[in-house]
Amino acid sequence: GQNIDQPTEMTATEGAIVQINCTYQTSGFNGLFWYQQHAGEAPTFLSYNVLDGLEEKGRFSSFLSRSKGYSYLLLKELQMKDSASYLCAVRDSTSGTYKYIFGTGTRLKVLA
Amino acid sequence: EAQVTQNPRYLITVTGKKLTVTCSQNMNHEYMSWYRQDPGLGLRQIYYSMNVEVTDKGDVPEGYKVSRKEKRNFPLILESPSPNQTSLYFCASSLAAEPYSYEQYFGPGTRLTVT
Predict the structure, then answer these.
(1) Cis (ω within 30 of 0) for the bond into A7?
(2) Which chain B residue is nearest to residue A100, measuring alpha carbons?
């Protein structure tokens, strides 16, 4: 079947580094996305991985290991505005079309 | 401004009264999708469309219908809403569903309550 797991909640301090893990199981892996969602708002795109390795975008980096079904999102120099939910999503092509499966999200609290 | 719009943003209705939530995008995107978001369950895909006249079921299609007659519009229809369809609904679009890094752009959400 298809499944995505990520921690429900994490807490970190302003200025610190936090790593949010995501593990997935899917037979038709076709890319992994990370989205940020502030409370009451729509998700917004953060990063994309389809090949193994690290993708860096400013304070945000995302890593993928396809053989392990594992990804992480790394947030550096945390700011208060980074308090949000972070959603891991896999694009799956098992059916010959492209479906998206989302994890339940990790709620990150950044403390002063 | 490039955007995905949804209407209405908030809706309270009664069981069995048919309703339609509209979704429109102005970015000439091929791929469009509907999700529902529930506490503890995350975003779940209801239906998606790879292009005009092409729609497919997501993980939770029961009780919903969609159509894609034009590229820009992708309405979500609830023929006979029930209380278990009370949720926050998001429409999303992306340039294509090909294996490229085409992220999805989400609409602002529609909060639906069925009593």
Answers:
(1) no
(2) B45
